[in-house]
Amino acid sequence: MKEVDFAKGPVWKCIVAQAIPLTIAQFVQLLYNVVDRIYLGHMGEGHSLALTGVGLTFPVITMIVAFSVLFGAGGVPLFSIERGRGNTDGSARIMGVSFTLLIMSAVTLMLVGYIFRRPVLFALGASEDSYVYASRYLVVYLAGTLFAMTTTGMNGYISAQGFPGTAMCTTIIGAVINIVLDPLFIFVLGMGIQGAALATIISQFVSAVWILRFLTGRRSLIRLSPGNLVFDAGVASNIFRLGLSNFIMQGTNCVVQIVCNKTLQSYGGDLYVGIMTVANSVREIFMLPVSGIIGGAQPVISFNYGAKSYKRVKDGINFNTVLGTVYTALAWLLVIAIPAFWFRLFSDDPAMAASGAPALKIYFFGFVFMAFQFAGQTSFQALGDAKHAIFFSLLRKVFIVVPLTLILPCMGLSVRGVFLAEPISNVIGGIACYTTMRLTVYKKLNESMK
């Protein structure tokens, strides 16, 4: 597949050339989990508890993703900046150390997950009934931790070299395998929720092999080689510093999921934990194009920043913002128009649809402001501004969502308060992040252009 040259042509074309295959890849990646939930939601007797059980594992899976982006997404901007400067050896070193950090953390997380599985799941809001399903899923899923982290953490190094089509194939291959194996394992072989987890880790294994074959092969502009896998504290520190904002974003998602599950269990029981599982699934679906835009824009912005093409950097940020805003506004309207449809997609339980539709409309209110949050966040990270990226990661989730999730239900809003916390944080966090980005990043770029 043809390489995209970030230094040539209109910036918006470079971003779109990256974003389209990445959006497709993001959509296919989502199928790993969403297809599982759809099948489990229609599994027959006990399906609501199966869906709730999978929802209880979300914080654990989110934490695995958090470490993946800490060492993966933390290295990609640095890799892109060095590539823009023409420093091939430096780029290769960053990629190698990033992979080493992913391996180390994957082994550690898998062992910790197995040892503390039961107390962790009950701390996340499991009941005796839902724990059975959550534990069965997690026991199998944890075995594929290394595959999941390699897929999530290293695929960005393919698109950062200008091969978004190849990166797209990573997830398409895995998802097709997952879609085929899910019904086979769940229904034909009667493995139920464990079959869903097994299908997922097999598909992730294949995706991980695909990534490593490309990065170590001839087509890769900068190859992953054994000599660059040696741990380097200085490089690791820089990766950690920049990746910390992504880690906090994912890690705080984990904290929010824990608080939401515990609060919903107290005020609404297993039914509302299941409803939040569906709400998060719908949100993941509509976040896909946003993630694709971000993934397409970040290496383009970083490369041109490293090459000192500051006007192209500003053009990239502006296009990122406009496209994201238009899309999230349309997505917001679509969810509000047909909320019950999304619950029927994930479950045939009428009680879940009846209670979940109004909750989903509340949860998605203000979704358009997420475009401003991510436009600002991506700009900070692409330019290596770890301080602001970390702060705004913490602001929206830790300082707004978590307190509101605990306070609003106590003010007579009950479960409605849990779902209301998200849109409030979208509005406040999005405006604050984007305004700060315009006042700081643009000032720095304008001064550099003089």
3D architecture notes:
It is a single chain. The protein has 18 helices and no strands. It has helices at 11-41, 47-71, 76-84, 88-115, 117-123, 128-142, 145-154, 156-159, 164-188, 193-215, 233-267, 270-306, 310-337, 339-346, 350-364, 370-382, 386-407, 415-449. The longest helix is centred in the middle third of the chain and has 37 residues, at 270-306. It starts with 10 loop residues before the first helix and ends with a helix. The relative contact order is 0.13. The model has no long low-confidence stretch (mean pLDDT 84).
Helical proportion, percent range: over 70%
> Class by helix and strand content?
mainly alpha
- Catalogue the unreliable spans: none
Instruction: Provide a count of the helices.
Output: 18
**Largest sheet features:** none
How many whole angstroms does the radius of gyration measure? 21 Å
What is the count of distinct domains?
1
Record field, number of beta strands:
0
The overall pLDDT average reads: 84
Estimate the global geometry from the Cα principal axes. globular
Order of helices and strands: HHHHHHHHHHHHHHHHHH
Q: CA-to-CA gap between the ends? A: 38 Å
